């Protein structure tokens, strides 16, 4: 199964160095992706 994700975020004072996205599976957090600039 494939699920498309779309998110919009606004950060004050510049962008963070790392952003992680997790999915709550009901049994805890499951990492989806991590991006580092």
Automatic annotation (TrEMBL):
Superkingdom of the organism of origin: Archaea
User: Where is the region Disordered?
Assistant: 15-37
Give start-end positions of Polar residues composition bias: 19-37
Name of the protein this chain belongs to: Uncharacterized protein
Biological classification of the source: Archaea, Methanobacteriati, Methanobacteriota, Stenosarchaea group, Halobacteria
């Amino acid at each position: 199964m494939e699920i498309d994700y779309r998110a919009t975020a606004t950060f004050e004072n510049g962008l963070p160095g790392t952003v992680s996205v997790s999915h709550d599976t009901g049994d805890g957090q499951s990492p989806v992706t991590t991006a580092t600039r």
